[in-house]
Design a protein that fits this description.
The protein has 120 residues and is mostly beta strands. The protein is 8% helix and 52% strand. It has one domain. It contains 1 helix and 11 strands, in the order ββββββαβββββ. The strands form 3 sheets. The chain has a 7-stranded antiparallel beta sheet with strand order 2-1-7-8-11-6-3. Strands 4-5 form a two-stranded antiparallel ribbon. A two-stranded antiparallel ribbon has the order 9-10. The longest helix has 10 residues, at 59-68. The protein is elongated and about 65 Å long. The two termini are 24 Å apart. InterPro entries: DUF6711.
Length: 120
């Protein structure tokens, strides 16, 4: 599967220009400092967070990426740095941005497309 970097709902995506794998702890509501000034973590779960960015894509490719990541929840197949292999998990998408660059002669491109996906 090395030739395909990311799949969204089974569809191959263009390889991102930047990919940052992250792991977030989810703590219980009663976590925090207590009267003895000890921090109580109370981890209840861990969730993956992937920061994705594509640079200099044409408008058609930009649309393909944004449409693929538009559903409320998506299945992403990605390289997981903790397991050391490709995994498929359910994610939701954070805020998306795509600053636009204009070149003459019909060469419209986005400067970049970037957003985070967080495991459900």
């Amino acid at each position: 599967m090395a030739e395909i970097f990311l799949k969204v709902n089974g569809v191959s995506m263009p390889c991102p220009s930047s990919y940052t794998w992250g792991l977030q702890d989810v703590s219980a509501a009663k976590s925090g400092r207590s009267d003895d000034s000890v921090m109580h973590k109370n981890r209840v779960a861990q969730k993956r967070k992937l920061a994705l960015q594509w640079k200099g894509k044409d408008w058609a490719t930009t649309a393909k990426i944004l449409q693929a990541f538009n559903p409320e929840y998506i299945q992403i197949t990605y390289p997981d740095m903790m397991s050391g292999k490709y995994e498929t998990r359910t994610f939701y998408v954070g805020d998306r941005s795509a600053p636009v660059k204009w070149w003459w002669h019909g060469n419209q491109r986005t400067e970049s497309i970037s957003f985070d996906v967080i495991e459900r």
